[in-house]
Amino acid sequence: MTRARVPVLASWLVARVTPRSRRDELLGDLAEMLHQRRARSGGLAAWRWYWRQTGRAVTDAADRAIRRERGPLGRTLVEDTRHAWRALTVRPAFSSAAVALLALGLGANATVFSWVNAVLLDPLPGTTEPGRLVQLSYLYRGDPLTSFSVPDYRDVREGATELEGVAGRDDLAVGVVIDHDAERAWAEVVTANYFDVLGVPMALGRAFTPGDDRAGTVPTAVLAHRYWTGRFGADPDVIGRAVRVNAQVVTIVGVAAPGFQGGESGLAYDLWLPLGAHPAVAPGPSRLDARGSRWLTVIGRLAPHATPDTVRAELDRTIDRMRRAFAAEGRYVEHRGAVFALSASPNGAVAILRPVLLVLMAVALVVLLVTCANLAGLILARSSARQREMAVRLSMGASRGRLVRQLLLEGAMLSALGAVGAVAALRWTAGLLVGMAPPSELPIALSVPVDARVLAVTAACAFGTVLLFALAPAVQTAPHDVAGTLRDAGAAGRAFGRHRWRRALVAAQVALSVALLVGAGLSLRSLQAASRMTPGFMADGLVVGWLDLFSAGYDETEGRAFYTRLLDRVRALPGVTAATLGRRVPLGFTGPASSDFTVEGAPATDDIRVAAVYHVGPDYAATLGARVVAGRDLTDADTAGRTAAVMVNETLARTYWKDRSPIGGRVMFGQPRADRPPTWMTVVGVVADIKQRSLTERPRPTLYVPVLQQYASAMVLHVRTSGDPDRLAGDLQRAVRDLDPRVPFFNVGRLDDHAAAATFTQRLAGDVLTALGALAVLLAGIGAYGLLAFLVGLRRREIGIRLAVGATRRQVVGLVAGTGARVVGAGLALGLVLSAGVGAGLRGLLIGVTAADPVTYTGVVAVLTLVAGAACVVPARRAAALDPALTLRDE
Question: Is 294 helix (H, G, I), strand (E, B) or coil?
C-alpha cells in the first residue's frame, strides 16, 4: 500500500506526530487494514472504523513523543487526551450533534463580531494607531454639525495644541478619462497633511505637499491601491502620468498603501485630490475662502498627553474666539465644540450601523448561551449512562480531579471542532453585511476581514463555552457514592436527585428564546409599520438615475439646455407619465444641503433660520406623487430670466406664515447685507412634508428651488412609468446616450430599492434576529424534549407500576407533560422579564411600534407554547404507551 491510498487528513495527522522512521510503515498498515475492512463490512462502517484507528494511531504516536520529552506529566496528559478522543469517536452521533450545535452558536458570534470589528473597531482600515484619531464637530442646540468651512478648519488647526495634526476631507463624484476611456469614480478632496495625520504610507511615489493646497497650482492626485492595480494594472510607471478628472488635467504623484480605503467608514474611494484642486474639479464658485460654506469633515490625531476632553475644551476656546470675531454676522451664536472617537462617529457606516451591531452582538451571545445550555443538557443525559464507568475508575484509584479533567478535555475537543467549523463558515457569512446593503450612489464597500482579532475572540468564546457546558456536567458525572453506583445501575437517578440542573437549563433556554423572539417580533412589526407609513411621496413606479454634466464639460447655459432636451425626450417614451430632476433621492443614504435663509417681513430674531435645500426640476411634486397643498408645482416656465421661484414645504409655511397664505411671499438665502442687494425668491407653491432621511425624522423647513433657474450640474433623473420599471431603465440609458454619450448616467434603478436605505438597520436587525430567534426556539424545543425523554427513561419502573395498579393513559400523559409545562412556564415568565431589556435596546430602531408591543408578546408566547407543547406531548405519549408487564420484567 502506498501513502496515496490514505486520505489527506489522516496522512497529515500521522505525519505531524510520527517519527520519520515509522511514518511510511504506519500509513501502509492503516491503508491495508482499511482495504480489508471495507471488503468485509462495507464502505460506511469501514470508514468509521478507519477514523477510529487513525485517532488511536495519532494518540499512540503523540504518547511516545511526549514520553520522550516531558516525562510523567506529559504521559498523563496524553493518556487523558487519548481517552477523551476515543470517548467521542465511540459515540459519533452525539459528537457530531454537539459539534454542529457549537458551530452554529460560535459561528453566529464570530460572524457578528467580524461585522463589529470591521465597522466599529477598525472603521478606517490602513491607518496607523486609529485609537488616537478623533473627529471634530460643532454642536448646535445639541445636534452635531459635522462640517467645517475651510476658514473654520484653518482657525481650528492654528489653535490646536492638543492635537498632533488636523486634516480635512470631503467626497466628490468625478469623471475620469484614462487613455480616452471615460468612467465614473469617487474621489476625496483632502488637505495636504491628510495622509500624515491618518498615518497612511505611500506604496509608490509621494503624498501631497503644502503647495498642493494652494489654489491655482497644477492639480495632482494620489491613487487608491485597489484602483491602481485594477485600472492601471499596477504599473510602476504611473507616477507622473496625466489623466483627466472632470475635464481637468491632473498629474498622478502617488499610490496609497494597500488596505486604506479613505476617511469615511464604509466607503472606498478611488483617488484623492488636494484642496487646491477643488476649484478646478468641482462645479460652482470656489468655496476655499467662503466661511459660510461648511463642507469639510475634520479629523485630528491626539497628542500623546491629550484626551478628548482636553481637545473639546480647546475647540470651545477656538469657537469662542470665532464667535467674538464674527459677532456682527451672527455666526457661531450657540455653537459648541464636540469630539468623537472614530468608533462613535456621527458619519458613515459607524453612525448607521453602530446601534444595530451592538444589539446583534448581545443577541449572538444570548444564542451562544442557549447553545451551551442545550449542550450541557445533552451531556448531563449522556453522563448518567457513564456514572458506572466513572465509579469503576474511582474504585481502581483514579482521582476525581483527573476524571473531571478528562471530561473537560472531551468538551474542549468538541469546542475546538465547533470553532473550526465557525471560522470555516466565516468565508460566506462575513460578507452578508455588505450583501444586505441597499443600492446607493455612494461607493459602499465594507471590508470584513477574518483577522487575528476575530480569530482570538472566536477562540476565547470557544474556551468560555467549555466552562459553560462542560464544567458542571463533569463535576456531576463523577459520583460521590461509588459503592451505591456499583451496586445499582439505577443509582444514576438518585445521583441526580430531582434533576434540578437539567430543569434549570431548559428553563433558561426557554427564557432566552423568549427574549430573542421578542426582539425579532418587534423588528418585524417595525418593518410592517414602516411599510404602512406615508413618507409624503409614492415610490412605486418611479425609476431614478444619476447624471453629472460637469464631468462632461458642460457649463451652466449648456447644462440648462441639456436638462430641457432630456426631459422632453424622456416624457415622450412609451409608458412614461411624468419626469423631473432632483438633487437627491428621498430616503436615500445622502441627505440634503442646508442653508440659512430670511423670510421677508418675518420679525427679527437672534435665531438662525436653517432650511434643507433641494434643487429640483419641473413637475417635481407631480412626478413624486407629493401633494401640493397650496399654489402650484414648479413648471418648465421657471427658467433663467424669469422671476425667481421657490416651493416650500408645509412645515416652513406653517412656521413663518402662520395663518396667512405664503403664496406670493418671498424668501432669500442667507441674511440681508448692506453691501449687496437681496436676491429674493417668490413662493409659488406649498408641498406636503416629504420624509428625506428617515421615516421617523421630525419635519424640517425645506426649500425647493428650480434647477433651470439656480443651476446644479449633478442631478438625479426621476421618471414615473405606468409600465415595467426594469424595462424603462434601458430606454433611459439609450435616451441619455443619444443626446450625448459623454454624459455619465449611472445607478439606474427603482426608487423603492434606493429608499430601502431608510429601513436598512431595521431590516438587518429583523433578518438576523429572526434567524437567531428561530435557532434558539429550535434548541429550546430540543432541550424540553430531551429533558422529558430523559426523565421518562429514568422513571420507566415507576410509570410501569402506576399503569399496573390502575393509572390511566391520560393520567400518565398529564404526569409527564405537567413536568414539562412547569419548566416551560418558569422559562416563559423569566423570558418576559428579560424581554423588557431587549425592547429597551431596540427602542432606537423601532418605527411605529413600542418596545412593549402587546401583539409581539402575545405572538411570542403562543409560538413558544406550541413548540414546547409539541416537545412535551411526544415523550408523554410514549410514556403512556409503555407495556407494564414488559417494563417491570425488564427492570
Answer: coil
What kind and span of H or E run contains 470? none
Given pLDDT bands bounded at 50, 70 and 90, which one contains residue 623? very high
Mean pLDDT score, 4-25: 49
Reading the block at residue 296, the C-alpha cell is 469639510
Rg (CA), the chain: 35
What the block records as the C-alpha cell of 409 is: 478535555
Q: Which residue has the higher pLDDT, 469 or 18?
A: 469
Task: Encode burial over 793-808: b for 16+ CB neighbours within 10 A, e otherwise.
Answer: ebbbeebbebbeeebe
User: Which pLDDT belongs to residue 69?
Assistant: 44
Query: Is-contact 167 298, C-beta < 8 A?
Result: yes
In the beta sheet, which residues pair with residue 610?
596
Nearest 10 degrees: Cα torsion 151, 156, 159, 163? -140
Between CA 697 and CA 674 the distance in angstroms is 37
594-626 core/surface letters (b: 16 or more CB in 10 A; e: else): beebbbeeeeeeeebbebbbbbbbbbbbbbbeb
Cβ-based neighbour number of residue 167 at 10 Å: 25
Instruction: State the average pLDDT over residues 765-776.
Output: 82
Residue 730, classified by CB atoms within 10 Å of its CB into exposed (0-12), middle (13-18) or buried (19+), is exposed
Query: CA 660 to CA 668: how far, in whole Å?
Result: 19
| pLDDT classification of 19: cutoffs 50, 70, 90 | low
Residues 630 and 686: beta-carbon distance below 8 Å? yes
Selection from 221, 213, 222, 172 nearest residue 192 by Cα: 213
Which residues, in sequence order, are bridge partners of residue 256? 202
Helix, coil or strand: residue 577: strand
Q: Is the dihedral of CA 706, 710, 712, 713 positive or negative?
A: positive
Alpha helix locations (H) across 175-277? Answer: 194-198, 225-231
What CA–CA distance (Å, rounded) separates 659 from 653? 9
Q: What is the spatial distance between Cα 369 and Cα 103, in angstroms, rounded to a whole number? A: 13
- Looking at the chain, the whole-number percentage of residues with pLDDT higher than 90 is 29
Convert the pLDDT of each residue in 380-390 to its tens digit. Answer: 666 655 656 66
**What is the three-class DSSP state of 756?**
helix
Q: What distance in Å separates the CA atoms of residue 614 and residue 584, rounded to the nearest whole number? A: 7
Instruction: Give the whole-angstrom CA distance, residue 634 versus residue 641.
Output: 15
In this structure, the strands spanning 181-190 and 163-178 are antiparallel
Q: Are 342 and 302 in contact (CB under 8 A)?
A: no
Do the beta carbons of residue 863 and residue 384 sit within 8 Å?
Answer: no
From CA 680, how far away is CA 666, in angstroms rounded? 6
- CB neighbours (10 Å) of residue 11? 18
d(CA 219, CA 213): 9
Q: What is the pLDDT of residue 345?
A: 85
Cα–Cα distance measured from residue 455 to residue 446, given in angstroms and rounded to the nearest whole number: 19
Residue 45 DSSP SS3: helix
- Tell whether pTM > 0.85: no
User: How many Å apart are CA 687 and CA 631, to the nearest integer?
Assistant: 9
Strand-pairing partners, residue 178, are 181
Element (H, E) at 96: helix 92-116
Helix/strand/coil (H, E, C) string of 681-704? EEEEEEECCCCCCCCCCCCCCEEE
Q: CA separation (Å) from 281 to 222, 276, 710? A: 15, 10, 20
